User: Which sequence fits this backbone?
Protein backbone atom coordinates (compact mmCIF):
# COMPACT_ATOMS: atom_id res chain seq x y z
CA UNK A 1 0.00 0.00 0.00
CA UNK A 2 1.40 3.41 -0.91
CA UNK A 3 0.57 6.99 -0.01
CA UNK A 4 2.06 10.25 -1.23
CA UNK A 5 5.16 9.86 0.97
CA UNK A 6 4.99 6.36 2.44
CA UNK A 7 4.92 2.67 1.65
CA UNK A 8 3.06 0.43 4.08
CA UNK A 9 4.39 -3.06 3.67
CA UNK A 10 5.10 -6.37 5.34
CA UNK A 11 8.10 -6.41 7.68
CA UNK A 12 11.39 -7.90 6.41
CA UNK A 13 14.25 -9.48 8.38
CA UNK A 14 16.44 -6.48 7.51
CA UNK A 15 14.04 -4.20 9.47
CA UNK A 16 15.04 -5.65 12.87
CA UNK A 17 17.88 -3.20 13.68
CA UNK A 18 15.71 -0.17 12.91
CA UNK A 19 12.76 -1.61 14.86
CA UNK A 20 15.08 -2.20 17.83
CA UNK A 21 16.40 1.37 17.54
CA UNK A 22 13.07 3.19 17.55
CA UNK A 23 11.49 0.90 20.14
CA UNK A 24 14.53 1.68 22.32
CA UNK A 25 13.74 5.40 22.36
CA UNK A 26 12.38 6.35 25.79
CA UNK A 27 9.75 8.68 24.33
CA UNK A 28 8.53 5.98 21.93
CA UNK A 29 8.39 3.24 24.58
CA UNK A 30 6.81 5.44 27.27
CA UNK A 31 3.17 4.43 26.70
CA UNK A 32 3.85 1.07 25.04
CA UNK A 33 3.91 -2.46 26.46
CA UNK A 34 7.67 -2.88 25.97
CA UNK A 35 10.58 -1.38 27.86
CA UNK A 36 13.52 0.54 26.44
CA UNK A 37 16.04 -0.56 25.44
CA UNK A 38 14.47 -3.05 23.04
CA UNK A 39 17.20 -5.64 22.31
CA UNK A 40 18.06 -6.66 18.74
CA UNK A 41 17.30 -10.35 19.38
CA UNK A 42 13.80 -9.39 20.56
CA UNK A 43 13.37 -7.21 17.45
CA UNK A 44 14.45 -10.11 15.23
CA UNK A 45 11.84 -12.37 16.86
CA UNK A 46 9.18 -9.66 16.51
CA UNK A 47 9.99 -9.06 12.84
CA UNK A 48 9.72 -12.80 12.09
CA UNK A 49 6.31 -12.87 13.80
CA UNK A 50 5.16 -9.70 12.01
CA UNK A 51 6.26 -11.09 8.62
CA UNK A 52 4.31 -14.32 9.19
CA UNK A 53 1.01 -12.54 9.87
CA UNK A 54 -1.85 -11.90 7.48
CA UNK A 55 -3.76 -8.60 7.21
CA UNK A 56 -6.96 -10.44 6.26
CA UNK A 57 -7.01 -13.14 8.97
CA UNK A 58 -8.01 -12.74 12.63
CA UNK A 59 -5.22 -11.64 14.94
CA UNK A 60 -2.49 -9.01 14.88
CA UNK A 61 -0.83 -7.76 11.72
CA UNK A 62 1.90 -5.15 11.77
CA UNK A 63 2.43 -2.86 8.76
CA UNK A 64 5.96 -1.46 8.40
CA UNK A 65 5.92 2.27 7.57
CA UNK A 66 8.66 3.07 5.07
CA UNK A 67 9.48 6.65 4.11
CA UNK A 68 9.66 6.51 0.32
CA UNK A 69 12.17 9.35 -0.10
CA UNK A 70 14.70 7.72 2.25
CA UNK A 71 13.72 4.06 1.71
CA UNK A 72 13.88 3.64 5.49
CA UNK A 73 11.62 2.16 8.15
CA UNK A 74 10.18 4.91 10.36
CA UNK A 75 7.47 3.11 12.34
CA UNK A 76 4.59 0.69 12.22
CA UNK A 77 0.81 0.40 12.31
CA UNK A 78 -0.70 -2.57 14.14
CA UNK A 79 -4.14 -3.99 13.39
CA UNK A 80 -5.88 -6.70 15.39
CA UNK A 81 -8.64 -8.11 13.21
CA UNK A 82 -11.43 -9.70 15.26
CA UNK A 83 -12.70 -13.22 14.55
CA UNK A 84 -15.84 -11.83 12.87
CA UNK A 85 -13.65 -10.02 10.26
CA UNK A 86 -15.86 -6.93 10.67
CA UNK A 87 -14.12 -5.19 13.59
CA UNK A 88 -10.53 -4.32 14.43
CA UNK A 89 -8.30 -2.52 16.88
CA UNK A 90 -5.55 -0.20 15.62
CA UNK A 91 -2.31 1.10 17.12
CA UNK A 92 0.73 2.96 15.82
CA UNK A 93 4.34 3.71 16.65
CA UNK A 94 6.68 6.20 14.98
CA UNK A 95 10.37 6.89 15.52
CA UNK A 96 10.89 10.19 17.33
CA UNK A 97 12.83 11.78 14.45
CA UNK A 98 9.79 11.33 12.17
CA UNK A 99 7.06 12.51 14.53
CA UNK A 100 5.16 15.80 14.07
CA UNK A 101 5.42 15.68 10.26
CA UNK A 102 2.07 14.07 9.48
CA UNK A 103 3.51 10.63 8.72
CA UNK A 104 1.49 8.83 11.40
CA UNK A 105 -1.73 10.49 10.22
CA UNK A 106 -0.93 9.52 6.62
CA UNK A 107 -0.05 5.92 7.52
CA UNK A 108 -3.00 5.28 9.83
CA UNK A 109 -5.36 6.91 7.31
CA UNK A 110 -4.13 4.54 4.58
CA UNK A 111 -4.63 1.51 6.81
CA UNK A 112 -8.12 2.69 7.80
CA UNK A 113 -8.96 3.19 4.14
CA UNK A 114 -7.95 -0.40 3.43
CA UNK A 115 -9.88 -1.72 6.43
CA UNK A 116 -13.11 0.08 5.51
CA UNK A 117 -13.02 0.21 1.71
CA UNK A 118 -11.21 -3.03 0.80
CA UNK A 119 -11.85 -5.35 3.73
CA UNK A 120 -15.36 -4.03 4.46
CA UNK A 121 -14.98 -3.59 8.20
CA UNK A 122 -17.84 -2.10 10.20
CA UNK A 123 -15.85 -0.65 13.13
CA UNK A 124 -12.28 0.12 14.18
CA UNK A 125 -11.34 0.99 17.75
CA UNK A 126 -8.29 2.60 19.28
CA UNK A 127 -7.12 2.77 22.87
CA UNK A 128 -4.39 4.86 24.45
CA UNK A 129 -3.02 5.94 27.80
CA UNK A 130 -4.88 9.09 28.87
CA UNK A 131 -1.51 10.89 29.18
CA UNK A 132 -0.67 10.14 25.53
CA UNK A 133 -2.31 13.31 24.25
CA UNK A 134 -0.62 13.16 20.83
CA UNK A 135 -2.04 9.70 20.08
CA UNK A 136 -5.48 10.80 21.25
CA UNK A 137 -5.24 13.88 19.03
CA UNK A 138 -4.27 11.72 16.04
CA UNK A 139 -7.29 9.46 16.53
CA UNK A 140 -9.59 12.48 16.83
CA UNK A 141 -8.06 14.08 13.70
CA UNK A 142 -8.94 10.92 11.79
CA UNK A 143 -12.58 11.09 12.90
CA UNK A 144 -12.56 8.67 15.84
CA UNK A 145 -15.08 9.40 18.59
CA UNK A 146 -13.98 9.25 22.20
CA UNK A 147 -16.26 6.60 23.65
CA UNK A 148 -14.98 6.21 27.15
CA UNK A 149 -12.42 6.34 29.88
CA UNK A 150 -11.32 3.19 31.65
CA UNK A 151 -9.99 4.23 35.05
CA UNK A 152 -6.87 2.42 36.25
CA UNK A 153 -7.36 -0.08 33.45
CA UNK A 154 -3.77 -1.09 32.73
CA UNK A 155 -0.93 -1.93 35.09
CA UNK A 156 2.18 -1.07 33.11
CA UNK A 157 5.70 -0.10 34.09
CA UNK A 158 4.88 -0.23 37.78
CA UNK A 159 1.74 1.91 37.79
CA UNK A 160 -1.98 1.79 37.08
CA UNK A 161 -2.95 3.91 34.09
CA UNK A 162 -6.22 5.27 32.74
CA UNK A 163 -7.05 4.42 29.12
CA UNK A 164 -9.10 6.35 26.57
CA UNK A 165 -11.32 4.36 24.21
CA UNK A 166 -12.05 5.53 20.67
CA UNK A 167 -14.27 4.15 17.92
CA UNK A 168 -14.77 4.81 14.23
CA UNK A 169 -17.59 3.34 12.14
CA UNK A 170 -17.44 2.63 8.44
CA UNK A 171 -20.30 5.07 7.87
CA UNK A 172 -18.09 7.81 9.36
CA UNK A 173 -15.11 7.10 7.08
CA UNK A 174 -15.00 9.19 3.88
CA UNK A 175 -15.70 7.12 0.80
CA UNK A 176 -16.46 3.89 2.66
Assistant:
Amino acid sequence: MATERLILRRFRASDAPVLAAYRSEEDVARYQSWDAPFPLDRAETAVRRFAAGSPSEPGWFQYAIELTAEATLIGDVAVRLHDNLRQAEIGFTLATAYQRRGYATEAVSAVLDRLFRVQGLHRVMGECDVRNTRSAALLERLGFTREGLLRQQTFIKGEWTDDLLYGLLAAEWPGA
